[in-house]
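Running co-folding for magnesium ion.
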Amino acid sequence: MYDMVNLYECVQYIRELVKEKGFEDECTDKVLFGKGLFAIMELSEAMEIIKKHGVETLKVSKHAREEVQEELIDSIFYLLDLYGILQRDIPLEVPDKVFMDKLKKNKQRNFQYGRPELVQYKSEKNDIK
Ligand SMILES: [Mg+2]
């Protein structure tokens, strides 16, 4: 079993981790861009594993799934580190509040918002049938 955590706690855990490991960074443009870049790199690693194995393999390979999930969480760690630095020094709102506010905002958007090509594709597809 595992402990459930909220985003606020996740940010605090990452702050503790970076302090323990000597990576408590200052809030500078360079540091923030670096954290963002590392988050993208970790995400790329996850995508590489998906590309290498394919979804069907992921469904049956625990090892492949573990690789993907670990890289995705690595990416989230960097995002939480970035968020925590900003929250510490700027400061930002508590991430849980921002998450819920943004979720509400996105729920108010239209079906398949921002993807007009999907709506176009589906209407064309339905014309064919
Ligand atoms: Mg990694």
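Result summary
The pocket of magnesium ion is lined by residues 42, 45, 71, 74 (CB under 6 Å).
The mean pLDDT is 93.
Job closed.
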